[in-house]
Amino acid sequence: MKLFVGRINRHGLLDKARRGDVVVLDVRPSDEYANGHLPYARSMPLEEIKKRLAELPADKEIVAYCRGPFCMLSAEAVQLLREHGFRAHKIADGLPEWLAAGLPVDVGEEG
Description:
The chain has helices at 10-19, 30-35, 46-49, 73-83, 95-100; strands at 22-26, 41-43, 61-66, 88-94. The chain is an alpha/beta fold. It has one domain (10-100): Rhodanese-like domain (Oxidized Rhodanese, domain 1). It has a four-stranded parallel β-sheet, sandwiched between helices. The protein is globular and about 35 Å long. It starts with 9 loop residues before the first helix and ends in an 11-residue tail after the last helix. The relative contact order is 0.22. The mean pLDDT is 89.
């Protein structure tokens, strides 16, 4: 399954994130992130993105996700990031789809 048009699948995203080739942003509230998130994902709730733009590398692709295909948080995050010059995309998957596919999930706060 392709995560976003013309791009990589779930395993490809994991590989790219592990290598540091993409930045994966979890734009859900912090408590949802702490309860489970994609491996290598960084917590950056939608309402915090604008004031935390300086934390994001301008030279890397950013992939945002939220609660699933009908959640608009990641779409709003991508629009905001693109307005500030970032190469950003959203994935249709959220944590439920990731779990249903049998892929690993991390739990806890960022280190």
